Amino acid sequence: MSKHIVVIPGDGIGAEITAAALSVAQAAAAKCGFSFTYESKHAGGAAIDEYGMPLPEETVAACRKADGVLLGAVGGPKWDHVAPELRAEKAILGLRKELGLYANLRPIKVFPALANQSPLKPEIVSAVDILIVRELTGGIYFGDRQEAAVVDGVEQAWDKEMYSRPEIERIVRMACRAALGRKGRVMSVDKANVLAASRLWRKVAIEVAAGFDQVKLEHMYVDNCAMQLVLNPGSFDVIVTGNLFGDILSDEAAVLSGSIGLLPSASLGDGTGLYEPIHGSAPDIAGKGIANPLGTILSAAMLFRYSLEQEAAAAMIEQAVDRVLADGYRTADIYQQGFTKVSTDEMRQQVIDRLG
Description:
- Keywords: Amino-acid biosynthesis, Branched-chain amino acid biosynthesis, Cytoplasm, Leucine biosynthesis, Magnesium, Manganese, Metal-binding, NAD, Oxidoreductase.
- This protein has two domains: 1-100 and 270-356, 3-Layer(aba) Sandwich (Isopropylmalate Dehydrogenase); 119-257, Isopropylmalate Dehydrogenase.
- The protein has twelve helices and 14 strands.
- It has helices at residues 14-31, 45-51, 57-65, 90-98, 122-125, 165-180, 196-209, 222-231, 243-254, 294-306, 311-326, 344-353, and strands at residues 3-10, 36-40, 68-73, 103-109, 129-135, 145-151, 154-159, 185-190, 216-221, 238-241, 264-268, 274-277, 329-330, 340-341.
- The strands form three sheets. Strands 2-1-3-12-11-4-5-10-8-9 form a ten-stranded mixed sheet, with helices on both faces. A two-stranded antiparallel sheet has the order 6-7.
- It is globular, with a radius of gyration of 20 Å.
């Protein structure tokens, strides 16, 4: 049966990298004997220009009906000075909320061919294979807030951090299920020595994990976790944490791979899954044909795995990316002397040539 996806190119390099990923996805699907249809929709800065808002209802409606959503990147300096409620990044938060996407999965893996390009020593990063499970629709990003205002003669602003038991239960449960297919270890990250919300988080995490006999749950304060990701990143299996901590830690961990352009993500929950690379829109290199499409290509692989239930096609794409890197092909962001520098489109073709 044919599946249908929505492609949201977004801004900056978004159009280039989603086109490359879509091409690879279509080639992998053909080799695995299935097909999918797709349509393109606006979100982010492109939607502000077209509709005067970052997330049109037309885009939301199409995403709700789709089997999966592939997103490029949104935002850029062009839209930095619009009203806070109209910022391009609101498109991402809005999609997560409208689609009920409460979990962000970010696999952090160091490709053997790129171990020397990590800022850490190869012997430290060679064993890195981490899955970060970040809560997406709760916490301080979605709490009440007060924009800057003068109160009693002093300018101030505030944001509220809050988590409920159901929000914590479902994200920890997802992390434990993910761990069952890995090494069976979950590190729950919080700041329970200071924050009330973190104390509830830890209490509920212990209760949920008790229902998974084959999972070992441990706890770590966020500051220590940030340090251990640099000192001993190979010690982690699955990390589960809240929205703010997850945002920071996942970006820190992304650097271990040698380039943020290599890493995919999946946002999952009650509705259509959303898949995107973790890097930004890079407007300074947009249209130059030098953007690294591998993070988006690997995001398409995750879309096949989690939303279309096409594991063979997902694994085929991931193996092709591994082979391309092993064969020495590099986009500008990961290029080193002695390797073969390729454009965005040439990298796309190299991956397609190695499918299967």
